[in-house]
Amino acid sequence: MEVKIFSGENSEYLASKIADYYGHRLGDKTLFRFSDGEMQPVINESVRGSYVFFVQSTFAPSENLMELLLMIDAVKRASAGYVTAVIPFYGYARQDRKDKPRVPISAKLIANLIEAAGADRIMTMDFHADQIQGFFDIPVDHLKSEAIFIPYLENEGLDNVIFASPDVGGVKRARNYAKYFRTELVICDKHREKANHVAEMTLIGEVKDANVILVDDLVDTAGTLCKAAEILMKEGAKSVRAICTHPVLSGKAYANIEASHLQELIVCDTIPLKKKSTKIKVLSTAKLFAKAIRNTHEHRSISALFVGE
C-alpha cells in the first residue's frame, strides 16, 4: 500500500519535518471553517487503499482533537486501506483514573473517540502513564523520548551525574536513565493542595556536588520543576537541568523557568513553544517518528528504534 502523510493545522511545523525525513511530501488537505467556527477538513487527493498517517498533537485548544477525529473519518469514508493516528502529544492523559468522586476518566474517553472515528493504529510518545496503552483496543506504538534525550546527554559530557524524579510517580522514568548511565537516583517527594500548586517538597537522597538531571514526561506551569531545582541546589547540587518530553508551558511557566535555579530545560517539539527562552532547548522528534512510520509500513520492529532495546 502507498504511504500518505497528512497533518493537522497546528502540527504542520512537525509533520513537514517528518515527511522530509521520510522522503515524502505532505498530503494535500484543506481545512474549511464556517462562520461560527465549525471545521470541515477536505482531503484533496485520493487515499483509496493507501496507508494513511495523520500527524496531530492534541494539545489545547480541543479543536486539535476535533480536527484529528474529522480527518480520520474523512479518509475512512474515502476507502483508505489503513489509518494511523500519529499523536506526538496525547492530550488529557493526566486524567487517567478517578482520583476523586464524580470526575471523568478523560484519557479513556479520548481513546474511545479516536477508535470510533476509525483509526486502525495509534502512534504516540511518552504517555503520562504507560497503562493508557490499555485504554485502546487497537495497536499502540508507544515511542520513548530516551532515544532523543540520551544521545544529547551523552554529548554534553557531564561528570558526576545524578538523575532525579520530581515526584514519586515519575520514579520509573528517571530510573531508566539512571540505569542506562549507571548512576544514582534521587526523588523529590511532593504534596499538592490542588492541581498546579505544590504545597511542600522533600528530597530523598544525596546530591552534594552532583550535576542533577530532573526527568519528567511533561512540564506545565513548571512549578514542580522549579521547586525541585531550588531544593536540589539547597542540598548542595552543582547544577540542575531538566528533560521533559512535552512542553505544555501554560500560565506563568516561562517566567517561572527564567527565575528558577534550572540551568537548562530540554524538551521535544511535540508541542510548539509559545515563545523563545534562553533556558529552553528544543530537540526534534521528526526523525524518530519518520523511522517509526517506515518500520510500521514495512512491518518491522518499533522497539529496535529505542536506546538500550
Q: Report the total helices.
A: 8
Total domain modules: 2
Kindly report the CATH topology of the largest domain.
Rossmann fold
Distance between the termini: 29 Å
Overview in brief:
With 309 residues, this protein is of the alpha/beta class. The chain is 29% helix and 28% strand.
Which helices and strands occur, and which strands form pairs?
Blueprint: E1 3-7, H1 12-22, E2 29-33, E3 39-43, E4 51-55, H2 63-77, E5 82-87, H3 106-117, E6 121-125, E7 140-143, H4 146-156, E8 161-165, H5 171-181, E9 184-194, E10 197-204, E11 211-219, H6 223-234, E12 239-247, H7 253-258, E13 264-268, E14 280-283, H8 286-297
Parallel strand pairs: 1-4, 4-5, 5-6, 6-7, 8-9, 8-11, 11-12, 12-13, 13-14
Antiparallel strand pairs: 2-3, 9-10
Helix pairs in contact: 1-8
Q: If you had to describe this structure to a student in words, what would you say it looks like?
A:
Helices cover 29% and strands 28% of the residues. It has 2 domains: 3-143 and 287-305, 3-Layer(aba) Sandwich (Rossmann fold), CATH 3.40.50; 146-284, Rossmann fold, CATH 3.40.50. The two termini are 29 Å apart. It contains 8 helices and 14 strands. α1 packs across α8 (286-297). β8, α5 and β9 form a beta-alpha-beta unit.
List keywords for this structure.
Rossmann fold, 2 domains, 28% strand, globular
